[in-house]
Design goal:
The protein has 252 residues and is mainly alpha-helical. The protein has one domain. It is 72% helix and 0% strand. The protein is globular and about 50 Å long.
Length: 252
């Protein structure tokens, strides 16, 4: 029997369940708390944006946010229950105890699974078939939020780890080495996934999703061991300070 989580009916439910995940990770000093700490800021920002009328269809945006977050929370529930999530999330979860990885690598692994795999699926399910095209402006807006907060996190991390002021150069090298993970490219990929899935029947969607999951998990391996960036990673890692709990607090 698959491990299940409580149902989500609102963004407030999403925030509450993210809080539970974050607290669980904080209590255990688990690096798996980095991504949900960042993701909670994204979710809160989307909630505020809906309240301010920033999206064309606030009700649909909440539905998208719930579906999108649900995929991460489902993956987390499966992992906690000793079952296998998607390959992309497994790639992120299985390195939780790897202290050799930079904080930014742990974050990129979560972003890779959630954007390159989950976002397109959530969009296709929220606005299936011809309805998908009308979602694109709000889809782009939520990606702008992701990019905005990711840039903010890099600036926050610089206060504790000064060597990360060179992070843009490092990420540039990672981009070249790992199919250029940038928000613009990730958004384009996720929208392509959504358009591909939206016109398929359910049985065909499952096959297409499995193919995307495979590609995304391969990408994750490049984030963990990026070719041609090992020296830069080692130099930054040597100067990285702060424990897991303080990092989670910072990302919150």
């Amino acid at each position: 029997m698959l491990t299940q989580r409580p149902p989500l009916h609102s963004i407030d439910d999403v925030l509450a369940q993210l809080d539970d995940v974050i607290q669980f990770c904080w209590d255990r000093s688990s690096r798996l708390g980095y991504f949900p700490a960042l993701y909670r800021k994204v979710t809160r920002r989307v909630k505020d944006g809906i309240a301010k009328g920033e999206f064309q269809d606030g009700t649909r945006m909440e539905d998208l946010d719930i579906c999108f977050a649900g995929r991460y929370l489902d993956a987390w529930a499966l992992h906690r229950g000793g079952e296998l999530p998607t390959r992309a999330w497994l790639a992120a979860f299985r390195v939780a105890d790897d202290s050799d990885l930079l904080v930014i690598q742990h974050l990129l692994l979560g972003m890779n699974a959630h954007i390159n795999l989950d976002l397109g699926i959530a969009a296709a399910r929220t606005a299936p078939g011809p309805a998908l095209e009308s979602l694109q402006p709000d889809f782009n807006k939520i990606n702008d939020v992701l990019a905005e907060l990711t840039d903010g996190v890099k600036k926050e991390l610089e206060h504790i780890w000064p060597p990360l002021r060179g992070l843009d150069q490092l990420v540039g090298r990672l981009d070249d080495a790992v199919v250029n993970f940038s928000m613009t490219r990730a958004r384009g990929h996720a929208w392509g996934v959504a358009r591909r899935l939206a016109v398929l029947p359910v049985h065909a969607q499952l096959q297409a999703m499995a193919e995307v999951d495979t590609w995304t998990s391969v990408f994750a391996e490049g984030v963990v061991r990026p070719p041609m960036a090992e020296l830069a990673l080692k130099l930054i890692r040597r100067e990285e300070h702060g424990d897991v709990r303080s990092t989670i607090d910072l990302l919150m």
